[in-house]
Amino acid sequence: MRIRIRKYRLTLSVFAVLPLAIACWAQQTEYSENQRLGMESHVGNMTGNATVGAPIYKRFCIGCHGVLGDGEGENAQWIDPKPRNFTIAIFRCRSTPTGTLPTDTDLYDTVGRGMLNSNMPPWGPLTDEDRVNLVAYVKHFSPRWLTEKPGTPIVIPPEPPVTAERIKQGRVLFQKMECWKCHGVTGRGNGPSADTLTDDQNRPIKPFNFHDENRFKCGTTNAAMYKDFMTGLDGSPMPSFADNLKPDEAWDLVFYLRTLQPADTIEKRIAQQIGLKPLEPNGQLPGPPAPAENPLGEKPTNNSGTK
Amino acid sequence: MQTGFTTVSSSGRQLLKSLLASTFAFSIFFLVFLGSTTPGRAIPAFARKYGLPCSACHEAWPMLNVFGQTFKDNGYQLMNDRDSPIWQNPSYWPATFRMTPNWHRESASQVAIDTPGGGQVPEEVTQNGFDLTGLDFHTGGTLYKNYSFYLLPSSDPTGAFHFETVMARIDNIGNSPWFNFKLGKFELDNIISEKRILTLSNQGGFYHLYHFIPLGDDNVFGQMGDNQLGAELMGHSLNDRTRYSVALLSSNNGQVQLPTKNAYSTFVTVSQAFDAGYQGGVDRVGAYLFIGNAPTYTLNSGGVPVTAIGNKPFNREGFFGLVYIKKLDFQLFYQHGWDSAYFGTSTPSNAPLPPGASAPSWNGGFVEAHYVVNPQMIFIQRDEFVRMSQQALPTTPGNFGNLNAYTFGFRYYPFMFSRAGFAYHAEYSLTQQKGAAPLTFTQLANSSVFLGFDFDF
User: What is the pLDDT of residue B453?
Assistant: First the structure.
C-alpha cells in the first residue's frame, strides 16, 4: 500500500511540477522572443529596430540567410561560400577581439560593403536607416545578444611610414607566422594546407588570394587589414595574431601584403625598386629555413580563380 | 490570336453584366489561389546567377528598386567580384522568357462602322475573350568583368519577332563608375521605365506621354518609350545616388536598316537620389531632355523609300521624381513637348506650310502610386493628363487632342521560388481623348479590363 502511495505521490509530483516547468519555459521563450524582436542597433545617431528591419530582411536577405537566419535560405545550396548563420552570432569582420560579438557599426559596415569573394553584394544603395534596421534584425536571430555585450573595439595605432625595411620585415613575418601554409608563399591562396581548411561549421573554405584583388576581406584600407590580423576572422581558420604580433609587426605585414596585390601602390613600387620578389613554391626562404617552414608541399598556382 | 467574340451594342448593358460576372468569377478564382499559396522569392536569369531573391532588385517584378537600378547601372554586376561568367557553372544560360495568357475586354466608345447603305456610323464597340500577349525572350548579363550584353528578341501575340533590345556595354571605363558606354538598340535611360511597367492592358500598359504626338502630327520619331538605336555614355556615383546619361540616337524610332537614318537626336538625363527619411525606399528627382531632328519625307525608287530627308526639329523635356513613404510610393512625371510645324501639319519640308501653321506644343504629366503590401502584393494606380498648349492649325479647337488616362490594378505573386516568377494580374484602364472619335470628332473613350497570369522563367 505504501509503495502504491509512493508511486502515486511521484506521479502527482510529476503532474504538479510539469505544468509549472512548461509554464516557466513558455514564459521564458516568449520573453526571449519578445525581447529579441525588440532588439535595437545603434550606429552614430541612428537607432535601428528589429521589427522595422524584418520586412527589409525578407525582401533582400531571406533567399540566402533563410527565414530563421540560419544561413539555410532556399538559395544557400547553390552558394559557395555558404551564407552566414546569424543564430550563432559569429562574424568575420569585426573591430572587436576574437570570440566577442561585433559592434553594431561592424555589422552595418559589412552590410554596406558586402563580402568579397562571396555572394554577399554591397548593399550600399539601401538607405542608412534600412541598413541599421537590418542590423537590429540580424542581431535578433541569436540569444547571444541578450546575454553578451559586444567586445571593446581594438585600438589601431597610427600607420607608420612605409619603408623598404618594413616591407622586408613583413616578408619575414609572413614566413615566421606561417601565413604561407594557407595563403601560399606567393600569397595566391594555394599553400599546402589550403585544401584541408574548413570553417566553424566544418565546410571547406579557401584562403584569400592576395593577387586577385586590391581589396581585403573586410575593407579596402591598410587599417582594415591591420584589424583583420589583430581580431582574426572568426568562423574561419584565420586566427587573431593579437598575442603574437606587436603593432609595428602587424603594420609590416600589411605593407608586405600590399606588394602582392595588383594595384600600383607605394609598397609595390618600393618592392620593385629593391627587387623584392615573392618566393616561388620551391624557392629559397630568407635566412636559414627551418625544415618545418619549408613549404615543399605547396601546390602550383591555379589561375582559374580559386578562392 | 483573339479567341473571343465581338459585339456591337448601343447600350452595352448586357456586356457590362457579362463583364461583372466574369470579374466575379475571376475574383473567386483568385481568392482561392490567394488562400492556398505560400510565401517565397523569385529568381529569373540575373537573380538565378547570383542567388538573390527577385525582391532584392524589384520593388515588385518587373519594376526595379534602388538596388536593382544600381545593379543595372553597374552593367548587370553586383560588384562583389563574382560578376564575370567564369564564376558560373558552364551550363548557366542567362535567359528568361515572359508571356501573359489573359482574358481581356476592350471597349471603344465610337468606332466608324460600315452600314449596309455604304456609309459609316459611329458605334460603341466592345470585344472580350481569352488572348495572349507577345513573348519577350530576355537574355543578358556579363561577358566578362565590366563587359555585358542584353539581347531581347520579342514577338507580337502572333509570334512575329523583332529585336526589341540588342546592345553591348563596357562599364567602369578607367576604373570609374562615371564612364560606362553602350552601343546598340536600347531603352532610353528613363528612371520610370516603361519597359518595366507594372500595368499590361491595351490602354494602361504604357505611358501615353512617352509616345504622345498631337492628333494630325506625324512625328513618330520622338518616342521616349520605344527602344532606340544609338550609343549612350552613362555615369553614376558608387552608390548610384547621382547619375547621368547622354545618348546619341538615330531618329528612326528604333527601326533597323538605313533609309531613315540621316537624322540624329539626343537624350540627356540627370538625377539625384536621396533619403527623405520616410522609409520604404530611396527618393529621387531628375530632369531629362530629348531633342533632335527627324525626317519629314522620303525619296523613293520604284515606290520604295531609299532615304529620308527634310529634317525638322522636335524636343521633349521635363522632370520626374520618385517619392517613398513607407509602403506607399509615387512616381511623378512631367513633360513639355514641341514639334516643328511641319510635323504638326504632316507637311513635307519641301512643301509650303498651311496658312497660319504653328509648331504644336503641349504639357502633360502623370502620377503613378504604388502600395506595396509586401514584395508579393502591390496595388497600382495611375492618372495621366496631356493638355495642348498650341495647336498646329489656327482653326483647331484648343482642347483638341487633350488626353486623360486612368489605370488601377494589382499584382499578386503567390509563389516565387528560385527559378521563375508568376503573378496574378488584374487591371482596369480608361483613356479619354478630345476630338479623337472618328466621324464626330468628339471625345473618344477606350477602356480595358485585363486579367491574366504573368509568368517568366
Answer: 97
Task: With a cut of 90, say whether residue A292 has pLDDT above it.
Answer: no
A contact test, residue of B38, B48, B49, B50 with most A CBs within 10 A: B50
Please give the mean pLDDT across all residues of chain A. Answer: 83
A52 CB-near residues (< 8 Å, 6+ apart): A133, A136, B279
User: Hey, which residues does B162 pair with through a beta bridge?
Assistant: B154
| CB atoms B86 and A62 under 8 Å | no
Q: Would you list the DSSP string of B339-388?
A: E-HHHHTT--TTSPPPTT----EEEEEEEEEEEEEETTEEEEEEEEEEEE
Amino acid at the residue B297: Y
Neighbours of B100 (CB within 10 A): 21
Residue A42 confidence class, pLDDT cut points 50, 70, 90: very high
Q: Give per-residue pLDDT as tens, B74-122.
A: 999 988 777 877 777 777 788 888 999 999 999 999 999 999 989 999 9
Q: For A36-64, what is the mean pLDDT?
A: 92
pLDDT of A305 > 50? The answer is no
Q: Can you say how many angstroms the Cα of residue B422 is from the centroid of all Cα atoms in its chain?
A: 20
- For chain B, say whether A305 makes contact (Cβ under 8 Å): yes
Inform me whether the C-beta atom of residue B438 falls under 8 Å from chain A C-beta atoms.
Answer: no
Residue A117 forms contact with B (CB below 8 Å): yes
pLDDT on residue B92 = 78
Cis peptide before B62 (omega within 30 of 0): yes
How many CA atoms lie less than 13 Å away from A135 in the CB half-sphere?
27
How far, in Å, CA of B268 to CA of A86, rounded? Answer: 45
pTM across the whole model: 0.82
The answer to ipTM > 0.90 is no
Please tell me the least confidently modeled range out of A27-31, A38-42, A212-216, B70-74. A27-31
Please determine, for residue A286, whether its predicted confidence score (pLDDT) is greater than 50: no
Instruction: Tell me how many degrees the CA angle B190-B196-B200 measures, rounded to the nearest 5.
Output: 125
CA distance B376 to A173: 54
**Contact residues, chain B, for A76 at CB < 8 Å:** 51
The whole-number average pLDDT for the span B324-352 is 96
Side chain identity at B189, as an amino acid letter? D
Strands (E), B65-179: 95-99, 102-114, 120-131, 136-144, 147-155, 161-170
Bridge pairing between strands B242-250 and B228-236: antiparallel
What domains are defined for chain A? 45-147 (1.10.760.10), 164-293 (1.10.760.10)
Q: d(Cα A101, Cα A185) in Å, to the nearest integer? A: 32
Which one of A165-174, A287-296, B15-24 scores highest in mean pLDDT?
A165-174
Distance from CA of B275 to the nearest CA of A (A): 6
How many domains does chain B contain in total?
A: 1
CA atoms within 13 A of residue A260's CA, in its CB half-sphere:
28
Nearest CB neighbour to A78, from listed B51, B80, B86: B51
A306: exposed, middle or buried (C-beta count within 10 Å: 0-12, 13-18, 19+)? middle
Q: State the pLDDT confidence band at A227, using cuts at 50, 70 and 90.
A: very high
Q: B316 to chain A nearest CA, in Å?
A: 30
Contacts of A305 (CB under 8 A, 6+ apart): A212, B86, B87
Across chain B, mean pLDDT equals: 88
Residues A47 and A136: their CA atoms lie apart, in Å, by 9
Among residues A213, A169, A171, A173, the alpha carbon closest in space to that of A189 is found at A213
Question: Looking at residue A196, what DSSP letter applies?
Answer: G
Q: What is the pLDDT of residue B381?
A: 98
CATH number, domain of B406, equals: 2.40.160.10
Nearest to B82 by CA among A238, A58, A122: A122
Q: Residue B290 sits in which domain range? A: 5-456
Chain B residue whose CA is closest to A55 = B374
